[in-house]
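Example record used in the benchmark description.
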Amino acid sequence: MQVATTSKSTTASSAAPVFPTQMALFVLVTVLFFLWGMSNNLTDILVQQFKKSFELSLFSAQLVQTANFLGYFCMAIPAALVMRRWGYKAGMIMGLTLFGAGMILFWPAAVSGLYTPFLIALFAVGCGASVLETAANPFMAQFGPAETSERRLNFAQSFNPPGTIVGVIIGARFIFSGVELKAPQVAAMKLAGTYAGYLHSELMRVVPTYLVLGSVVLLFAVALSRMKFPAMQSEHEGEAGDKGTFGALLHYPHLWFAVLANFCNVGAQISTWSNLIPYMKQYTTVSERTAAGFLTATLVALMLGRFVTTPLMKYISASKLLGLYGAANVLMIALAILRPGMLGAYGIVASGFFLSIMFPTIFALGLKGLGPNTKLAGSLLVMAIVGGALFPPVLGWIARSTGQIAYGYVVPLIGFAVVAIYGFAAPLLLPPSGNTSPDAGPLTATIGHTM
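Model output (structure tokens):
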């Protein structure tokens, strides 16, 4: 009986269209995935740049990721409540405004010459990104037939890696100066009284990049505010007075396992990426810019993974692919731990391919069958991104305690193991036909209702 049900579900998924009829809006919202991708991986560059500019330990430098991803935790539920009242469009505009304003704050932070104002600015950027993801991910999952929600969200998320690649390239080109002083040079500059000026000039290199990006984001918010959004059928929940409740979410075990999996996935992903440059600086002789090139290669692998794997979901279940990719990344990170150096770095680069489908697939599977509870559930899945705030400092603490960054990579290894378990277990947890809610209709857009 289970085999027949699975076959029927796969057939329905293959026949249903992936893209909505309103392609202009679909394309516009897809741009958001590109924008926050640029920001998220610029933080990997900032870890190394602030480590140099403020002469920080790796643990202290990883507070960059903590500040950024803590914003995800703090703003996800407020964002869901805003969207439950005013819809997805309001959430996206609110997110873009916070996002852009946080980037603009890099200017006064740099003028102050202190580390804490940068962390505050990054927290604001993370808050904005949290609101954007709380809005854009469920919007894309619902913007078409429920049977193809994973494929549609994976397609939209495929434009996140190009953003991350552009972000790293911009950071490596405009933030990294290429000047890496040896100990004797530092001693000579301190004796001449020029070392403090050098550190300040390195710090100021982050300002132009963030000012330009912040301005672009704010202009995009203005453009989006003038667009008409269709209402989702799930947004009609307000007509019956049912907007969903957090209490109702307790009845969906597949959601809570998805939250745990997303926590571990994002934590593993961010700690893997943000430590690649320090990893290569410890175990190889490459420069910062060359190490940044390896980070770019990781993101290219991520992009290729999404474009290659998304079509496969027409023939292989998304949950099975998730389990296989999680297991593959356990092996890639194990290689980085056991063979530190260029071979381990290649393993980290390869892990990007298997990371490709994790976030959107976990997100889409977690939202299955939630009906009027979809927005609140989406906020919990976005809150789980706080894993990106907690995993990197733990990795940094292990590296500082042992003197070996490679040993710290056991942290993302555990995270990917949890993702693999979730992928293989998901079919046992999902409701029949992806729908347990008596009020949950098809997650499609209706025409004629706009904000």
